[in-house]
Structure formats: structure tokens, C-alpha cells
Design goal:
Layout: E1 4-8, H1 27-39, E2 44-47, H2 56-66, E3 71-76, H3 83-96, E4 101-105, H4 111-115, H5 123-142, E5 147-150, E6 155-159, E7 172-175, H6 179-188, E8 191-195, H7 199-215, E9 223-232, H8 236-255, H9 271-280, E10 285-286, E11 290-291, H10 293-296, E12 306-309, H11 311-324, E13 328-331, H12 336-366
Parallel strand pairs: 1-2, 1-13, 2-3, 3-4, 4-7, 7-8, 8-9, 9-12, 9-13
Antiparallel strand pairs: 5-6, 10-11, 11-12
Helix pairs in contact: 1-2, 2-3, 3-5, 5-6, 6-7, 11-12
This protein binds flavin mononucleotide.
Length: 367
């Protein structure tokens, strides 16, 4: 399957540059954003989750009802919904949309954030619970007979669901960079989500995930998803000027207390963010155009590595990751709607052309 593109959907115009604290969901914005992604040929859009954010299932249903092709990736923390209920909610959305649903698991990187919604397990336990949760989803989707479940975190008796996904199963994704994430994602998941790191570190992470898949006796392996925040302009010079304007704004917002991570925020507890901050110490630019000051300016809150340059530079950078083994490329900018339009117009076509050229070259070499 050729590489595919992921975006991220937010329910209103609030973004990292111009945050609108507690802004309500904006139905028109959501519809326009989702239709724009669909029209420009994005394959998926992630609906992220945090303890203070909107309900991803409702946002997902809205996106699906306004679009034709794009699939939604619902971010799900196991502590927020009982697994049999989540399995049916996802399958309901999947049926109503003709099979356009993916679920993305978040074990939870921060104890404090988890505690906000009553989750007091430690991280190892959260990953162990996630493993049970994934097994329950698949049992729910595939069992025609009622079944019992006797796990450490979940026990139930004689459950049967009449709501089956369109294609039998719904793809399951997982994001994280700790040993437990590699183990569970590698052994059980269809997709493994990573944040953009330099090529060498990305290769190491992919090798770890594939090794876990092989150890679990899988004949296939998870598709790899890599995430970037491209800063694009007509030329490289203009893009670098734009990148510095964005960085100034991120720093200004953080000083004003408008950033997701306050100035006093401790070092993040999730390994993915720790890795980004450690790599940031090595220098601002890695490889072709991977830029790290946006990581440090935000205390690595989520996907924060930028790719800076002209459409050609950004497309070539993305193709480097596709050549490395990335199957899914997530791109989301700092001005969400307008960046999605720029990516759709100028970056997706160049990357897809590069993929076609590679396929052609492979066919010719094999002939
Ligand atoms: C592609 C991707 C998307 C993610 N989306 C979310 C999200 O929506 N909400 C969230 O709290 N964490 C999200 N995360 C963060 C991790 O899932 C989280 O920190 C993880 O549970 C623990 O990370 P660790 O194994 O690296 O320590 C995402 C991670 C990746 C790689």
C-alpha cells in the first residue's frame, strides 16, 4: 500500500499561535476543515484527546457525516470508556461511515493528567490495561457467541455485541516510545505512531517495533506513522523567516501563560517527549530540514518537531522518511486550517509524484 497522509482535526479556530481558551466547538469550522482535508486527498484525520478536550466520538461522527473518503482516527485513553462500550461506539461509527474508522490508543504519558479523570494506575499498569483493552475490542468485533473475560483490569460475563465493523475489524494504532509501547504496539497493533525524530533515531525505533512484532510471532508488522509540523513557504529563505516568527509567537504565548506547557512545567514523564528534548540539545536542525526549537519552546508537548522549507524541501524530507519505511505521514502546522490548504496544494502532490517515480523505477528494475 503506498504511503498515506494524516492530518489532525480541531473543533474550532484555536491554535498554538492564537489560542482561544475554552472556545466552543464551531460546527462551520469543523465542517469546512474536514471537507478541505477530504477535497485535498488527506487519507486520515486524528481527533486527539486530553482530559479537558471535546468528545472525540461526537467530533468524529460530525467529520464523517460531512465527508466522503477521509477516515477518522479516534484517540482513546482506556480509562475513559469501558472497552465493550468503546468497541460498539467505534463499530457504530464504522458502519455509518462505510468503514472509515481507526482507533489510536494512548496509555497516558503523565500520572497527573491521568489522575484528572480518576486514573491512578502507574504507567506500566496503564500499558498492561491497554493490552487487555485491545484484546477485548477484537473479541467484541469478531465473536459471534457470548463470551466471558477474566483479566486483571476487566472482568465480565456472557457479553455479545451485535455491532460489527464493516471490514470485520477496525485498525488499531498505538503511540508511544517506551519499552511497553514498543512491546504492545509491535505485538498487537496494526499501526504504530511516532513523533518526527531524525532519520537515524526513527530507523532505530522502527527496528524496535519490527523486532517486537517478530518476537510475538507475527507474520505481518505494524504500519509506521511518523508525525511532523511543517512550516512551508514559497522558498527556503521565506520558510525560515516564517519559522522564526512562529517560534517568537510560541515563546511569547508561553510567557503569557497561553501555552499548553507553563514555563514552570517539569520535564515530561512520557518517553516520546523526553527523547525529543534530548535530541533538541544536539542542535537546531537535523538531517535535511527537521527543526527542534519548536520542541524546546513547548516543552515537547505532543508532536512538536517542525520541517522547514519550500514545498520541494519538505516533500523531499518526507520522502526520506518514506524511503526509510514510514507508511503514514502526519502533517499538521501551526495555523491549522491554512496550513492544511497549503499542504494539500503544494506538498501532497509532490510527495505522491515522488512515490510514483519510485514505483516506476522499481518496476523498471524488476523488468
Ligand atoms: C502519533 C501520536 C499521537 C498521540 N496523540 C495523543 C493524544 O491525542 N492525546 C494524548 O494524551 N497523548 C497522545 N500521544 C502521546 C502518547 O500516546 C503518550 O504519551 C503515551 O501514552 C506514553 O508515551 P511513552 O510510551 O512514550 O512514554 C500521542 C503520541 C503519538 C506518537
Amino acid at each position: 500500500m503506498p504511503a498515506e497522509f494524516i492530518s489532525v482535526t480541531f473543533p474550532n479556530a484555536s491554535n498554538d499561535l492564537h489560542p482561544l481558551p475554552d472556545a466552543p466547538a464551531d460546527a462551520e469550522y469543523l465542517k469546512r476543515y474536514a471537507q478541505t482535508l477530504d477535497d485535498y486527498g488527506f487519507n486520515y484525520t486524528l481527533i486527539p484527546y486530553s482530559s479537558s478536550s471535546f468528545d472525540p466520538f461526537t467530533l468524529g461522527a460530525t467529520i464523517l457525516s460531512h465527508t466522503k473518503n477521509i477516515k477518522i482516527i479516534v484517540a482513546l485513553r482506556p480509562n475513559t470508556v469501558y472497552p465493550t462500550v468503546a468497541a460498539k461506539s467505534l463499530a457504530t461509527l464504522d458502519q455509518l461511515s462505510g468503514g472509515r474508522v481507526v482507533v489510536h490508543f494512548i496509555a497516558g504519558g503523565s500520572d497527573d493528567e491521568q489522575a484528572r479523570e480518576g486514573d491512578f494506575l502507574d504507567k506500566e499498569q496503564r500499558y498492561a490495561r491497554q493490552e487487555e483493552y485491545i484484546r477485548i475490542l477484537r473479541l467484541t468485533w469478531t465473536s459471534t457467541e457470548a463470551f466471558d473475560f477474566e483479566g486483571t483490569y476487566y472482568q465480565f460475563k456472557q457479553f455479545r455485541s451485535a455491532v460489527r465493523p464493516v471490514n470485520g475489524l477496525i485498525p488499531i494504532s498505538l503511540g508511544g516510545s517506551s519499552d511497553a509501547a514498543y512491546r504492545i504496539g509491535g505485538s498487537l497493533c496494526d499501526i504504530f505512531g511516532l513523533w518526527g525524530e531524525p532519520l537515524a533515531e526513527t530507523r532505530q525505533q522502527i527496528d524496535r517495533i519490527y523486532a517486537e512484532a517478530a518476537k510475538a510471532g507475527r507474520s505481518d508488522r505494524p504500519r509506521i506513522w511518523v508525525t511532523f509540523r511543517p512550516i512551508v513557504a514559497e522558498t527556503d529563505d521565506l520558510a525560515w523567516a516564517k519559522a522564526h516568527r512562529i517560534l517568537d509567537k510560541l515563546n511569547e504565548n508561553r510567557e503569557k501563560g497561553l501555552s499548553r506547557a507553563p514555563l514552570s512545567a517539569p520535564r515530561p514523564a512520557n518517553v516520546g517527549s523526553q527523547r525529543l528534548l534530548d535530541i533538541a540539545k544536539r542542535g537546531d536542525v537535523q538531517d535535511r530540514a527537521l527543526w527542534y526549537p519548536t520542541v524546546t519552546a513547548t516543552n515537547a508537548s505532543g508532536a512538536t518537531t517542525a520541517l522547514v522549507g519550500s514545498p520541494r524541501t519538505i516533500a523531499d524530507s518526507i520522502l526520506d522518511y518514506i524511503d526509510l519505511g514510514a507508511d503514514l505521514i502526519s502533517i499538521r502546522g501551526y495555523d491549522n486550517y491554512h496550513d492544511a490548504v497549503d499542504y494539500g496544494r503544494y506538498i501532497l502532490p509532490l510527495v505522491r509524484e515522488g512515490i510514483r517515480e519510485r514505483e516506476e523505477a522499481r518496476k523498471q528494475a524488476a523488468a
